Q: What sequence folds into this?
């Protein structure tokens, strides 16, 4: 990190991928209520959801006094309004009571490159210039645990239906296939509908192990264990299948899938979650923690209501994230009255990222053959839509040149916005 990069940080960054922090303790010592408020808001961000945050006033002096008789946390955030010499003197005093391994982030009011260099020489992990925004704090704390030479933390994409039976699983599987095959990025599909999941059928896979082996053995979960459960579908695509059996009930606690998703995130650049249409503690938590969300809806009133409710809730609960995307599926069923995409956009306050037409022959043939749309017909317009959705959700360019589609201008605009 350079001083210039620190100076040019923005308080908001739509679409920016910030890897979440692990379970760490963070204590902040502020001198202004504005900084305290920004840090408090950062503690409510999903990426610091596992961190334990405590905020006090008093700056460096309060921190030194607090740690004379107590162990220091993983991260200390110090705000100081002092001049250069006062800052350095205070930090030297703090170093005398600071445990080894504790990382220090300083928020100062001095825009001075010499000060920054002296702070880094003394071992300060980061220096932010006041005033700071919520994302500045999130980025600083999370950045401490994702060093440039560390293994990258994967991006989690959650796909969920606004209503049951809208084809969300088919959409999720085809997008994941496009990420793996067309963008050539290592991807895993995790089928979280343990009772009725269709990922095994859609990819023509029947592995002996799957996600149930992980969720019912929480003490065994680590990266190596989850890797052994994955079924290879293609060069860059793996599958974590659901058992799709009814010999047991699948009642899960709110945090049941946390360790599985963490293990997948640690080993795969992209994780596509195929979420069932349920509203439980664990599905809500999984949606809230995802990096990107795609809601699949059909053009009728129930879907419109549900999609709006989901979008409103997710936008309010994730104020520092890109708003969830939505698409319309099975549009144009003969003789069926439908709500237009324009009316959907007006009600939801945003355009759909794609409109997938009703084409029962191609989708039915793909489902019965255990194939993706691109496998059945690589040049089909819907296959091109899935490729562009893959680009949008990963923020990557396609490695293979494809023909422009009907929705190219809309996708180009959304990619620029993201």
A:
């Amino acid at each position: 990190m350079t001083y210039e990069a620190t100076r040019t940080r923005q308080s908001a960054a739509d679409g920016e991928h910030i890897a979440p922090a692990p379970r760490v303790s963070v204590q902040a010592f502020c001198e202004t209520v504005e900084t305290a408020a920004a840090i408090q808001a950062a503690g409510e961000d999903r990426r610091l959801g596992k961190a334990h945050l405590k905020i006090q006033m008093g700056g460096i002096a309060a921190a030194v006094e607090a740690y004379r008789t107590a162990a220091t946390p993983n991260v200390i955030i110090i705000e100081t309004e002092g001049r250069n010499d006062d800052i350095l003197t205070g930090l030297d005093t703090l170093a005398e009571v600071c445990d080894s391994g504790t990382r220090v982030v300083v928020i100062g009011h001095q825009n001075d490159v010499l000060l920054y260099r002296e702070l880094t020489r003394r071992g300060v992990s980061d220096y932010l210039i006041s005033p700071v925004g919520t994302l500045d704090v999130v980025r600083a704390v999370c950045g401490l645990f994702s060093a440039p030479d560390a293994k990258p933390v994967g991006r989690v994409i959650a796909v969920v239906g606004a209503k049951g039976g809208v084809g969300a699983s088919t959409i999720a599987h085809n997008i994941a296939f496009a990420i793996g095959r067309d963008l050539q990025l290592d991807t895993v599909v995790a089928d979280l509908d343990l009772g009725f999941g269709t990922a095994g059928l859609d990819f023509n896979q029947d592995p002996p192990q799957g996600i149930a082996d992980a969720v019912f053995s929480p003490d065994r979960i680590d990266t190596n264990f989850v890797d052994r459960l994955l079924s290879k579908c293609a060069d860059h695509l793996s599958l974590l299948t659901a058992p799709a059996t009814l010999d047991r009930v699948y009642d899960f606690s709110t945090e049941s899938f946390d360790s599985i998703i963490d293990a997948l995130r640690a080993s795969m650049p992209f994780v596509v979650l195929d979420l069932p249409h349920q509203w439980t503690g664990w599905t809500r938590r999984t949606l809230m923690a995802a990096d990107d969300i795609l809601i699949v809806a059909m053009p009728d009133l129930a879907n419109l209501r549900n999609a709006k409710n989901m979008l409103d809730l997710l936008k309010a609960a994730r104020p520092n994230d890109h708003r969830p995307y939505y698409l319309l599926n099975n549009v144009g069923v003969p003789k069926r009255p439908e709500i237009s995409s324009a009316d959907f956009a007006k009600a939801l306050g945003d355009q759909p990222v794609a409109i997938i037409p009703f084409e029962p022959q191609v989708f039915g043939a793909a489902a019965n053959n255990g194939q993706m749309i691109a496998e059945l017909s690589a040049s089909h317009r819907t296959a091109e839509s899935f490729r562009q959705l893959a680009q949008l959700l990963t923020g990557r360019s396609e490695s293979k040149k494809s023909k422009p589609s009907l929705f190219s201008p809309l996708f180009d605009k959304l990619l620029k916005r993201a």
About this structure: Residues 155-417 form a domain with the Rossmann fold fold (CATH 3.40.50.300). The first helix runs from residue 3 to 7. The radius of gyration is 24 Å. Confidence is low (pLDDT under 50) at residues 1-14, 399-406.
